Amino acid sequence: MNYPAIDPVALSLGPIQIYWYGLMYLVGIGGAWWLASLRLHRLDPQWNQDKLSDLVFWVALGVIAGGRLGYVLFYDLASYFNDPGLILQIWRGGMSFHGGLIGVLLAVWWFARRNGKPFFQLMDFVAPLVPIGLGAGRIGNFINAELWGRASDVPWAMVFPTDPLQLARHPSQLYQFALEGVALFVILWLYSSKPRPMMAVSGLFAVFYGIFRFLVEFVREPDAHIGYLAFGWLTMGQVLSLPMILLGAIMMLVAYQREGHKQ
């Protein structure tokens, strides 16, 4: 199957080029903002749209700054050390989910302290919104023809124009869109639609994202400059996801134990 011819540039205005990858971030942030407004009264009946706008701004900043710096630190430090200007070229991809997560955690921690809210109360509110951005980002990866999967003979395998070997490969970006975007959103949105112990929603997010990412890594081509870290199959994405699964399970256990002690 041939990769559909998609120009990564969505719109050109003279010297200014607007990339689909950047637009996907706007879609993710805008979608999360809209969904958050539907549940804002559950977080705090006294909060208005201005307060929500502040929260979305800081979370978005954490995603972008943390995602870019995380990629630099975890995946390609040498290249960016040699040419620091590449760090600002986010339209070329190179965003790390795990770095973005750290950025979000720091942004929410700061915002929670500033507004007198428990950290995990805000994180439980934010967690079901994250898959919107994850799904949009994976569509951006697909349009950029980057982060493709390993060579395969499945009927839907694609030949990506950016692949120097021109092999038919798993469209792993679409797998991640389906799992990290659609499936994770449905799981978290339904689970959080009823009152849950504080920290449980955040824990469930960590568990399922970690599981989905770990599984997709088996068909996703590892970064060429990193390769496999151990056993001939363990990738950086899997190494970073394993602690998420463990930590998420512990968080849910602790959340329900605390809830049980209160009753």
UniProtKB/TrEMBL annotation:
Keyword check for Secreted: no
Cited function: Catalyzes the transfer of the diacylglyceryl group from phosphatidylglycerol to the sulfhydryl group of the N-terminal cysteine of a prolipoprotein, the first step in the formation of mature lipoproteins.
GO MF entries: phosphatidylglycerol-prolipoprotein diacylglyceryl transferase activity
Keywords: Cell membrane, Lipoprotein, Membrane, Transferase, Transmembrane, Transmembrane helix
Organism this protein belongs to: Halopseudomonas salegens
Pathway, per record: Protein modification; lipoprotein biosynthesis (diacylglyceryl transfer)
GO cellular component assignments: plasma membrane
HAMAP family attached to this UniProt entry: Lgt (MF_01147)
InterPro entries recorded: Lgt
GO annotation, biological process: lipoprotein biosynthetic process
Name the UniProt record assigns to this protein: Phosphatidylglycerol--prolipoprotein diacylglyceryl transferase
Membrane topology qualifier: Multi-pass membrane protein
Binding site for a 1,2-diacyl-sn-glycero-3-phospho-(1'-sn-glycerol): 138
Cell compartment(s), UniProt: Cell membrane
Primary site of residence: membrane
Protein family: Belongs to the Lgt family.
Recorded superkingdom: Bacteria
